[in-house]
Amino acid sequence: MDSKGLPLAEFEAEPQPCLPYRPIQRDAVAGLLAAALCLAAAGVRAEDRPMLIPTRDVDVVYRMAAPPGAAAQPGPTQRLRWRVAERRLRVDPPGEGVFMIVDYAARRMQMVQIGPREVIDMPTPPGLGDAAPSGARFERLGEDTVAVTSCTEWRTTDMQGSATTVCLTRDGVLLRVAAQGRVMIEATRVRYEPQDRVLFQVPEGYRHVAAPGGAPAPQGGGR
After folding, report:
1. What are the sequence ranges of the domains in the chain?
2. Number of neighbours of residue 25 by Cβ within 10 angstroms
3. Strand duo 207-209 + 118-123: pairing
4. What is the pTM of this model?
5. What is the residue-averaged pLDDT of the chain?
C-alpha cells in the first residue's frame, strides 16, 4: 500500500532515457554512475509514472556509501548537473582535475582531464535512451523527503536483477538509491537553477586521445 492507502501499482517498461550504469574509469566516476541505474517505467495512471531524467536544470550533490571496512567514515561526494536544453549531464567525481560530460542526444561521453588538457571520447553504454530490460517492473511505495526535497519511493531492480529502492522527484531528479538494506547514494543538496552551457562543453585547446580499448577517438564536441 502507498501513503494514500492505494494498492501498490506495478509498471511495465517502456523506452525512456536513463543515466549510464557502467563506470567509465576506475575510481573516477564509478560510484555514482553505477548507482544511477538505467530505469524505465510506464504507468497505468500517467500521473503516477516516474520521471527518469530531470525536466528542468538542476545541480545536485550526492553522498555515496563508504567503502567496505570504512562504514564509520563518511562516504565520498559527487556533483551532478543537468542542462535540459541540450540534454547534457555533467559529473564531477570526488577530488579535482577530472569531470565527465554525458550527451544524451549524441549518445557520447567525454572524460575531461584538466591537468594534461586531454579528453577521452567514447560512446555511451548500451541501453542509454533505449527500453528497459523486458519485464522490468516498478512498485510505488510512498512519499519521502531527501535534502529538503520531496520524492516518491519506487521498488524496482537494477540492471543485474537485484532489488533496489529509488526515490525520484516529480520532475525526474534521483535523490536516493538503496539496496540490500543500505543507502548507496543520497542527495545532500539540491538546487534548481539555470546551468551555464559552458560547463557542459570541452574547453578549447584540449587534445583528444584514444578511447579505452583502442577505439579511435571521435573528434568534435568542444566549443
Report:
1. 10-209
2. 15
3. parallel
4. 0.74
5. 74
